[in-house]
Design goal:
Blueprint lengths: L2 H22 L1 H22 L1 H7 L6 H25 L8 H17 L9 H15 L1 H8 L1 H4 L6 H30 L5 H16 L20
Helix pairs in contact: 1-9, 2-6, 2-9, 2-10, 3-4, 4-6, 4-7, 5-6, 5-10
C-alpha cells in the first residue's frame, strides 16, 4: 500500500476514534440537551410572536417589527455575554440565572392578561424582550465551553456537531409543541407551561455539567445559527 494511502487510513481511523470518544462522553450530550432546553422555548415564543400579536388585535407592520426587535435582543445578549467572558467572567455562571429569568419573564408575558392593564401590549413586549435578551447568554456560554466539554482524546468539532443536532431538534420541537398547546387550550396563554418546563429541565441538566480543563478549539469551528 502506498505510504500516502496508509497515512490517510491512519488519519481516518484516528479521526473516527476521536469522534467515538466524544459520542460516548456524557458532557457533550448534556450540553446539547441544555442548549435544546433553551432553543425550544425561545423558538416557541419568538417564532409565533407575529401570530400572537395579530391574535391580540395588533395590525399593520407592527407585529413583524416588534418580533424583529425581540429577535435582535437575543443577539445583543449573546454578544454582550461573550464580551463579559473575554473580560474574565467565568464560563457557566450565567446559565442558571438566565434560565430563571426566562421562566419568570415568560410567566409574566403569557400568564398575565396585559389587555386589562394600563401597560397593555407594551408590558408584554418588554417581558418578551427581556426573555430573549437574557436567553442569549446561554448559547454564548455553551459555545465558549466547547473545549472544556470535549473529552480527553475527543474531537471539539464533533462536540460542536452533536450539540448543534440537539439544538436543531429543540428548534423544530418548540414551535410544534407551542402550537399544539395553543390549539388544545384555545389561546397562547399556555405558552408559559412549555417555557417553564424547559427552563426547569435546563437548570437541572446544567447543574450536571462537569467541564474538564479547557482545550483549544479549532478556529474553523463555527457557531450554529438560530
Amino acid at each position: 500500500m502506498p505510504r500516502d494511502a496508509a497515512g490517510g487510513l491512519r488519519g481516518a481511523a484516528d479521526g473516527l476514534a476521536r469522534i467515538g470518544r466524544t459520542v460516548r462522553a456524557s458532557a457533550p450530550w448534556t450540553a446539547g440537551l441544555v442548549f435544546a432546553c433553551y432553543t425550544l422555548p425561545w423558538m416557541a415564543v419568538v417564532g409565533f410572536l407575529p401570530t400572537i400579536y395579530r391574535d391580540g388585535g395588533m395590525t399593520g407592520s407592527w407585529p413583524g417589527v416588534l418580533s424583529a426587535v425581540v429577535g435582535a435582543a437575543n443577539a445583543v445578549g449573546s454578544i454582550g455575554t461573550a464580551a463579559l467572558m473575554r473580560r474574565g467572567l467565568p464560563t457557566g455562571v450565567l446559565i442558571v440565572p438566565a434560565f430563571v429569568v426566562m421562566a419568570v419573564t415568560s410567566v409574566l408575558a403569557f400568564a398575565v392578561d396585559w389587555h386589562g392593564l394600563p401597560a397593555g401590549s407594551a408590558g408584554q413586549f418588554a417581558c418578551v424582550t427581556v426573555f430573549s435578551l437574557t436567553g442569549g447568554a446561554i448559547p454564548a456560554t455553551l459555545l465558549r465551553m466547547i473545549g472544556e466539554l470535549t473529552p480527553e482524546g475527543g474531537s471539539a468539532p464533533a462536540t460542536m456537531g452533536l450539540i448543534q443536532q440537539l439544538f436543531n431538534a429543540g428548534s423544530f420541537l418548540g414551535p410544534t409543541v407551542a402550537a399544539w398547546l395553543a390549539t388544545r387550550t384555545g389561546d397562547w396563554h399556555s405558552t408559559w407551561w412549555l417555557t417553564c418546563a424547559c427552563t426547569a429541565a435546563g437548570i437541572t441538566l446544567s447543574l450536571r455539567l462537569r467541564p474538564r480543563a479547557k482545550v483549544p478549539v479549532p478556529e474553523s469551528t463555527a457557531a450554529p445559527s438560530r
